[in-house]
Amino acid sequence: MKKTTSGILLILGSLILLSFIPKLKVIRDGSPKAADQNVMPADLKPFFENHCKPCHFKGGKFKALYKVNFTKWDDYGSKKQAEKAKNICSVLSDESMPPEMARKFNPKVIPTKEQIDAVCKWSASLQAATGK
Ligand code: HEC
Question: Taking the model in full, what pTM does it have?
Fold first, then answer.
């Protein structure tokens, strides 16, 4: 009887511990945040998919992925996201991304001013949230 009780307690204890595991990912970079704050906003996702594919998504160019990997965006820590978003706002504003060749080959990838503004606004909100 005693054995069963401690067995049950052990199982309960493990279940409680397991329930904490998803939260560990969030505190990885030392800045605890609600998990959903690290997720790419749904209204920007299609923009990056339409303008930065294939280079900055899974299967893209190594050098591009090293700088920004949108497939892994939600796994970046908040500080990394803030830094990368700042860089993204800057390369869109100075027109260095998408690269010249991509712009010539398919002018549809050239972002509009409204799109750039939306990205930079989002970037600023990430800077504000992380104090960067
Ligand atoms: C045709 C492929 C291609 C497309 C499309 C493209 N990029 Fe890039 N991007 C690259 C490559 C290659 C690099 C690495 C350049 C290097 O380091 O020399 C890069 C680098 C970057 C960097 C890092 C710049 C730096 O020097 O730190 C940012 C930020 C970036 N891209 C954002 C974007 C965004 C945002 C889009 C979509 C609006 C985009 N890119 C579209 C190929 C692409």
Answer: 0.79
Q: Quote the tokens at residue 109.
A: 């990838």
Q: Give residues with Cβ within 8 angstroms of 91, minimum separation 6.
A: 97
Query: Is there an atom of ligand 1 within 6 Å of 56 CB?
Result: yes
Query: Using CA atoms, how far apart are residues 56 and 71, in angstroms rounded to an integer?
Result: 8
Closest ligand 1 atom number to CA of residue 119? 35
67-87 CB burial, b ≥16 within 10 A, e <16: ebbbeebeebbbbebbbbbbe
What is the Cα–Cα distance from 20 to 38, expressed in whole angstroms? 18
Q: What is the DSSP letter of 63?
A: H
Q: Residue 6 has what pLDDT?
A: 79
Are the C-beta atoms of 101 and 61 separated by less than 8 Å? no
